[in-house]
Design goal:
Elements lengths: L2 H29 L5 H26 L4 H16 L22 H25 L7 H17 L20 H10 L9 H21 L4 H12 L2 H6 L7 H21 L2 H15 L3 H27 L3 H7 L7 H30 L22 H6 L10 H15 L2 H15 L9 H19 L22 H15 L4 H22 L5 H23 L4 H28 L7 H9 L5 E6 L11 H4 L7 E4 L1 E4 L2 E4 L3 H11 L3 E5 L9 H8 L3 E5 L3 E5 L3
Parallel strand pairs: 1-2, 1-5
Antiparallel strand pairs: 3-4, 5-7, 6-7
């Protein structure tokens, strides 16, 4: 990328980000100043992400997405935020009240070990991947290609699908909008790991805040925070692959935090923050769409039970702990539920409307037929029938369930077992002598159990051919919402156990975090740990210095400018390293495609079953370094699914209509298999310019 293009993109990104931060600051300062520092930071995350998504989603919805329209939408956001009236000064709880059990020196040592190791491991992984392209089948086959298609067509009103027989183009896409925000300014993806890494950190902070809200010991709360980002699957899907799941986890945890906070504050602003956060989470992943309603329903049910007990005269303390003090009525509980649920629905609504308009079913490809009454029909999902099994599908088959358990341990480490034990202990401790001592703990524990059960019935949690769940590891991330609820409960329980038992529980968390971080972030021993530790120490020292200079404005401004220039230079070096050999030397066929279609070309994709490049799809590389190639799969939509052509004549006609400059054909999972698309293309006169074990690359007849 030429330097002038990089600097122009940096300026556009900086202006957009400054506007989003300004709008966020206006809202937070005027409406949320009653929050303490930690709560204020997480509220700013929720508000800021909502604004960031809005300023990109509005032009997308109107079909006018460009860099200029995003800047206009950002300016509009600042103007609207300036109209927000300051909240009336009022007292009330800031941080969590009540006594917090102290942490022993041993507990602090375990927490320090787990947090430091998780930070070093993640930083080492980020440093190792900083100069490399994004890998992974999901990001390169639909997340990033979908973003590229938005940029090219300026609109979201199409189903962007590049893999046949799947419905990835129907996914909720809040996370992809966040990725769009760092791709659009440069028309390049070199920065996509930045928001993912940031949201990963915020996930840990939010889980710590949830544990703190429950008045868990500080050391145990830190252990919970370290544990959530040290799950092996977290390292697998975040930094190397830049999957947007971290947006779902961080905002989901924030939603839980503000629901819990409302139980002691009674502030409507807590409900609004919870609803917005849960809406962002629901609109990020399908497992967010299923997890968020479960949490909202359990929360409303708990409020209604508390209100009923208060009405009967025997549950005032419980009611006060679960709802607005002095307002524990069933009507108030239902009203609050409508507010939170409505905001959560709003966060995913645009994607449901898109699916309804373009596929005829908001939840496509899922058939919606409650109690046998079909509301939205759906065709047969071939891939789900063949490989998309849930864990529950293998009930009564212990041999297969054992294989699934192995994959769960690969993805989640020891966390599910520690959490199961911790929840059982918490259920006993929170309910002494038949009366709930802290009903919020019980509600959170119930939510964790419900989400764990939901995980077992979620499709693709036992991904693989029937009886062989060989691909279930990556989808263990569907269980992370359950762990977001469970780990703070475990931290709470650690503070109420006798010290030896508490230390044993905390040690299990710490050891699991260290082992999970080492595996998930793929550390290579001392050669990764030492440089990462030094780098983190330098960054920590710089942050400490800036904090110390906060009272000397001129010096602070100079230091901030210097830091910005260093960051700009580092970003330019990163993009230069990535773009210099972007997706080269992966496969000879991929090299040939990149050479034949450097920019401004039309690229056709075809394959019989699935790409055979392993953890990479040619779809995203085919878009080119600056997203200026037109890429499409050579197929047609049948009953909502992208489907390959079944006969030679139809395929030939599609090649003529497509006017492709390059055709890339996958050679199936059996490398030398002569798939139909290869035969058909050759018979119509297309010339092979590269034939590797995995790809055949062709150009049209001269």
């Amino acid at each position: 990328m030429p330097l002038q293009d990089f600097l122009a993109g940096a300026a556009l990104f900086g202006v957009m980000l400054a506007a989003v931060l300004a709008a966020t600051a206006l809202i937070v300062r005027r409406r949320l100043r009653h929050l303490d520092a930690l709560e204020l930071g997480l509220a700013s995350l929720v508000v800021g992400v909502a604004i960031l998504i809005a300023v990109h989603l509005l032009p997308l919805m109107l079909g006018i997405l460009t860099r200029g329209t995003v800047l206009a939408a950002a300016a509009l956001a600042v103007g609207l935020a300036a109209l927000v009236r300051p909240a009336a000064a009022a007292g009330g709880p800031g941080g969590p009240g009540g006594p917090v059990p102290p942490s022993s020196r041993a507990s602090w040592a375990l927490a320090a070990l787990a947090c430091a190791f998780a930070a070093v491991a993640a930083f080492a992984d980020l440093a190792r991947w900083a100069g490399d392209e994004v890998v992974g089948d999901d990001p390169t086959s639909f997340h990033l290609p979908g973003v590229g298609r938005w940029i090219q067509l300026h609109s979201m009103w199409q189903i962007d699908q590049f893999v046949p027989h799947l419905a990835q183009g129907n996914y909720p896409n809040n996370g992809d909008v966040v990725l769009l925000s760092v791709i659009l300014p440069w028309h390049n993806d070199f920065l996509v790991r930045l928001p993912v890494a940031f949201l990963l950190v915020m996930t840990a902070v939010a889980v710590f805040a949830v544990a703190r809200e429950l008045r868990a010991p500080q050391a145990a709360s830190l252990l919970a925070a370290a544990a959530i980002v040290s799950l092996p699957v977290v390292g697998f899907v975040t930094i190397p692959r830049a999957l947007p799941d971290a947006l779902m986890w961080s905002t989901f945890a924030c939603g839980i935090l503000f629901l819990l906070r409302h139980a002691r504050s009674g502030r409507r602003s807590d409900l609004v923050l919870a609803g917005v956060a849960l809406g962002i989470a629901a609109g990020t992943k399908w497992y967010g769409v299923s997890s968020v309603p479960v949490v909202v329903v359990i929360w409303i049910a708990a409020r209604l039970v508390a209100a009923r007990r208060a009405t009967d005269g025997g549950g005032a303390p419980v009611a006060a702990a679960l709802g607005a003090p002095g307002a524990a009525t069933q009507r108030a509980a239902l009203g609050d539920g409508v507010l939170v649920g409505g905001l959560a629905l709003l966060g995913v609504l645009v994607w449901l409307v898109r699916n309804l308009a373009l596929s005829g079913n908001p939840l496509f490809p899922l058939k919606v037929a409650p109690f046998g009454v079909t509301i939205f029909d759906a065709p047969r999902d071939i891939i789900r029938d063949q490989v998309g099994f849930s864990i529950a599908d293998y009930a009564g088959q212990p041999g297969v369930l054992l294989k699934v358990a192995v994959k769960i341990v690969e993805g989640l480490g020891s966390a599910p077992f520690v959490c199961a034990l911790g929840i059982a202990v918490a259920a006993v401790l929170a309910w002494p002598r038949g009366r709930a001592a802290d009903p919020r703990v019980l509600v959170l524990a119930a939510g964790a159990v419900a989400l764990a059960l939901l995980y077992t019935v979620t499709p693709a949690t036992a991904l693989g051919l029937r009886g062989t769940p060989s691909l279930a590891h990556a989808n263990t991330r569907y269980a992370i919402p359950a762990l977001v609820l469970a780990l703070p409960v475990v931290a709470w329980a650690a503070g109420r156990l006798p010290r030896p038992a508490a230390l044993a529980l905390e040690a299990a968390l710490a050891l699991g975090a260290v082992a999970g971080a080492y595996d998930g972030y793929q550390l290579r021993g001392v050669r990764d740990i030492v440089p990462a530790a030094v780098g983190l120490a330098v960054l920590a020292a710089a942050a400490w210095l800036l904090w110390r200079l906060r009272g000397r404005r001129v010096v602070l401004a100079a230091a901030v400018i210097a830091a910005a220039l260093v960051g700009l230079a580092a970003a330019n070096r990163v993009q230069d390293r990535i773009n210099a050999g972007r997706y080269r030397n992966v496969d000879p066929g991929l090299d040939a495609m990149l050479s034949a279609a450097p920019s401004g070309r039309r690229v056709g994709l075809a394959f019989a079953t699935y790409w055979s490049l392993g953890d990479l799809s040619p779809a995203w590389p085919a878009f080119g370094t600056r997203i200026d190639n037109d890429v499409e799969y050579v197929g047609r939509f049948v009953d909502g699914f992208l489907t390959p052509y079944r006969d030679e004549a139809s395929f030939h006609a599609a090649l003529r209509r497509g006017r492709y400059d390059v055709l890339v054909v996958g050679r199936s999972t059996i490398p030398k298999q002569n798939t139909p698309e290869q035969r058909w293309a050759i018979s119509s006169g297309w010339r092979t310019i590269s034939l590797s074990k995995k790809l055949r690359v062709l150009v049209p007849p001269a």
